[in-house]
Amino acid sequence: MNITLIRCLLWLCVAVQAAFFFFAWTTFAPAIGSMTIDITATGVSAATKLGLTGAQRAFGAALDALPVLVLGYGLWRLDRLLLNFRRQDLFTPQSVAHLRAFAGATLTATLLAIVELPLRTLGWRLITGARWPLQIGLTGEQAMLILVCGLFYLVTRMMQEGGRLAQENEGFI
Question: How far apart are CA 144 and CA 68, in angstroms?
């Protein structure tokens, strides 16, 4: 697959994430013709979203922004890695650092997304005094993402070793 195409898909992913975040925490709803699309944050129904106060919405958006921003940083580092790959810088320390930063940011964003929902609920309880049900969960996708991030750390170690061997081989020639 073409690196330019992958980079375009990567930035499309960033744009979609930003759009979903915006619609999840505002009362705007995208519409296609006469059909309205309800986009809500995890654990928030469309009816609940409309009943949130400004303080609740701001608090929820602030907490939810953390994993989105961390993931955005990780995707930016992935873009830098793809640019290195285009230049054939496959096993350089910079490429290894970009992949490691991407994996770390993705892992951090996933863990933040897992703890964001119960923290949001606790915050809403403090703001309103209402007894919101406390929820915490781990989806199959999140568990798989944690596993894949661990695999990427292993790959970065192999990339480091490959770079070291390449330098060692250059020394013999």
Answer: 18
Of 104, 105, 92, 109, the C-alpha closest to 163 is 92
pLDDT tens across 38-52, in order? 899 988 888 888 888
pTM: 0.87
Q: What's the first-to-final CA gap in the chain, in angstroms?
A: 33
- Cα(40)–Cα(27) distance, rounded to whole angstroms? 10
Structural domain boundaries enclosing 111: 53-172
Confidence tier at 95 by pLDDT (50, 70, 90) = very high
Q: Is residue 145 part of a domain?
A: yes
Nearest residue to 48 (alpha-carbon basis) of 121, 116, 114, 112: 121
- 86 is a domain residue: yes
Q: Is residue 61 part of a domain?
A: yes
Strand ranges (DSSP E) for the chain? 31-32, 35-36
Domain assignment of residue 27, yes or no: no
**How many structural domains comprise the chain?**
1
Contact 72, 80 (CB under 8 A): no
Helix (H, G, I), strand (E, B) or coil at 36: strand
Distance of CA 139 to the CA centre of its chain: 15
Least confident of 1-10, 31-40, 127-136: 127-136
Q: Please give the Cα distance from 71 to 105 (Å, whole number).
A: 6
DSSP 88: T
